Each structure stands twice: as C-alpha cells, then as structure tokens.
Amino acid sequence: MISGYLARQTWLHPVPAGAKLIALAVLSFAILPVDDWRLLAAFLLLTLAVFASLGREALKRVTGLRPLFWILAIIFVLHALTGDWQAGASAVLRLVTMILLADLVSMTTTLQDMMQALMPLLRLLRPFGVNPKKLSLAVSLAIRFVPVFSAQWHARAEAWKARTGKKPGLRLIGPFIADTFRMADHVAEALDARGFARKTPRG
C-alpha cells in the first residue's frame, strides 16, 4: 500500500518526524505568498540540493515529476496567454517545490513515526468530537500518497506509450482519477479490516 519510503538510511532519516513536519509546514507557508519567480527558483534549487545530499537513489526520485509535466505546462500556458508568464512560472515553481518538500518528508519518515508526531497536536481537537488517531492517519496518508500518485501516473503513461508509441497527454486524467478513487476504497477497506473504523479506547 505504501511504497514511498526510502529504505537506505540517510542523514535525514534520524531527524524526528515532528521536526520534519514542522519544517514542511513552515516552508510551505513561507513559499505561498512569494510571487517572484526568481526567488522561487532559488527555493527549488535548494530543495534539489537536499535531494542530491541524500544520494543518487533520492535524486532519481525527482524524475518522478515527469508525469506532471503536462499539467504544469497547462498552468504556465494559461498564465502566459493572459500576458503574465511570470505568474505562471511562479505557480509552477511553487507547486514543484512543495511536492518535492512533501516527498522529502515522506521518503525519510515511516508512517508510524508520522502518526506519533501528529497525535499530540490532534488530541487538542478531541473536545470537538474529532478522533485524533483517525485524523493523524488521514494527514499522514495524504503526505505519503503524493509520490505514490505521481508514480501511478507515470506507470500509466509509460504503459500508454508502450501500446501506442504516442504521448498520452490529458486523456489519462479520467482513468487516473478513477484509479485514485479505487485506491481510496481499497485503503479504506484495509484500514477497516485493521480496526481503524471501530471505536478505539480514549488515550
């Protein structure tokens, strides 16, 4: 179910999951209001430098963004058609950087460590009827599945090219969304089988 974890230990693996999640949140909020594409390009280069410091296997995962090329290209072109290519470049650079930052956390943190790091904060929502265990699992899965969905798109695109010899373009969006919902159903069934849908003792 989960395939995004980098098995080989790197310098980022021993860093506590809570520290990595806080850094991810802070950096994401810091990037959101930035409109200067040159500054965002610098953010992206720094992120790529971190990937390079983790080794060849980690750096190779950056190529997993290739399936997103057409979506990013559309975002850029739509902005360019309105005469504001700089806004398009900023949107693309911001999106790529945030995905790569999430992937850094995902590939160096186990799901269990991520859930344990989120639990203390989410327990504050218990008076409002929120189950912190379920919510921590949902947030952890959301972070974890970003690279998984990227890999899924890549596999489908490669299969299309192997069958037709042509680039898939946007025609795979429909099947990809259907696969995403199907995967969500399977994950829900797996979690239900493991007792996540049942009432758990308060703790």
TrEMBL record:
CDD domains found in the cross-reference section: EcfT
A Gene Ontology cellular-component term: plasma membrane
Record keywords: Membrane, Transmembrane, Transmembrane helix
Annotated transmembrane regions: 12-31, 37-55, 67-85, 91-111
Compartmental location: Membrane
Main localisation: membrane
A Pfam family that the UniProt record links to this protein: CbiQ
Membrane topology: Multi-pass membrane protein
InterPro entries (alphabetical): ABC/ECF_trnsptr_transmembrane (IPR003339)
Family named by the database record: Belongs to the CbiQ family.
Protein name as it appears in the record: Cobalt ABC transporter
Species this protein is from: Terrihabitans soli
